[in-house]
Amino acid sequence: MFGGMKLIKENLREQELTLENNSRKYTINNILNPKWILILIPMLFIVLFTFIPILKLFKLSFVDQNGFTLKYLSQVFTEKVYFQVILLTLKTGFIITILSILLAYPVAYFLVKTKSAKLKKFILLVIMIPFWISLLVRTFSWIIILQDQGILNSFLIYIGLINKPIHLLYNGISVTIGMVHVLFPFMVLNIYSSMESIDMQLVQVAEVMGAKPMRAFWGIFFPLSVPGILSGSIIVFVLSLGYFITPSLLGGSQNMVISTLIQNNISATLNWPLAASLALVLFIITMILLVILALLMKKNHMIGDES
Amino acid sequence: MWLPIVVIVVLFFLIAPVFVLVPLSFTSLSYFKFPPPSFSMQWYHAFFNNSQWVQCFGRSIVIAALTVGMSLVIGTMAAAAVTRIEFKHKDVFMAFMVLPMVIPVIIISIALYNTFSSLGLTDTILGLVLAHTLLSIPMVFVTVMTGLKSVDKNIELAAMGLGSKYISIFFNITLPQIKPSMVSAAIFAFSTSIDEVTVTMFISGAKTKTLPVAMWESMRNNITPDIAAVSTILISITLVMLFIQEIVRGRSAKIRQN
Q: Is the Cβ pair B104, A275 closer than 8 Å?
């Protein structure tokens, strides 16, 4: 027994010694303190490979060999061709957002209403599957569905709805379909999570007090789900502005958006200043929308805290 | 009554493109007819006998593996910094870590193309790994951070009190507890890298073409069923990864219950 006590005491003394050693080591190697390495290495990586390259790119938009110039940035807004591309990008984004809301809202509502946990899990799984599959693969799939001899046209001809293939690919229709398919999960998950936090008793109370189900829905449930629609819409809209693969593969020459125009200016015409100016405009629009989103989410949190 | 019907139609719209591709990759025809009149493996043979496809595929796997390693190291460091260290301007640090996800990818693409060509990093494996790593960092950072937040800090403090070094505490005590989030982070990084087209297209060249870039080029020129075969292979890789994730998650949940 005494032997055991002795061992423990020796152990303790050893530990005290190592503790002392450790503290001494850290004061000597203060610069090599793991604390700073953990912060510095990731920071250095992002600064070197994202931050500085982007600043260098933006510099190209207003500095050329003669020094400061606003020639290229003003070109973006004054030349009709470029300005139209920006307008088309915003218009396409708007249509995609509206369509996503219309498709996502019923699905989210069904998810909240359904009582079967299994069904809920299954629907969420189906929503997440496209998320996981390569974007290129999904886009390719739309090409074979929508082309003139594609699956959809063959089917429509087979059931006798049309007798000549309709052109669905390489135009606005295919870009919109492809993009809605890509961005839909973001919308539905946003709306669903805001609906989850709605107190269903409010709707029940309204119905008990004599409101018809339709009126209870539009008067109480829908307004409470608006924050989810808004945040989902901003995310979908922002993402739609920057997407490159889908408009590039599914669009035709008439469907040039900002991202494909940027790529065109780099690969085809080698017009770096103009590409950089377009990138800067796209960046500013994106950041403004993201700040609005952040404010919106903050406000919702505050409302949530109060209740 | 109309609600379930709408839901079914929307879910069908979501899932149909996936279900169309897989059977078409086994078609015996050289064009797309759905459903295929008869099945064959010819497009898989075409894929594996085409040295360009196979080379690009191998290269993609190598780049994705290197990306996983690098982004896990950097992302975990950043996550550890945020959850274990008190420092000023932590919110700025976090904003920087998710920056690559917030900026439209086309802007990152041409910015990197511009910088990498002056550094001689275009058309190199290193350049591609660096680019894919920075695109993966945000997801790795967020995933590992969530994992680290759930770990009981007292165990780490106890180990520190007993004289262990930071590094051995991390590898012996913290890492085993955040294994599921590390696996998810690795899968995120892997699929980011193996799917990446936009940035890769700009900075890769003839020597470093990846599978997605080869697919992209062939989709722009002529659409043949061998792309459907490649797509099916990619879909199966995704399924395998999700399966691994489920196994790891299930196992650690069991351990926690015990």
A: no
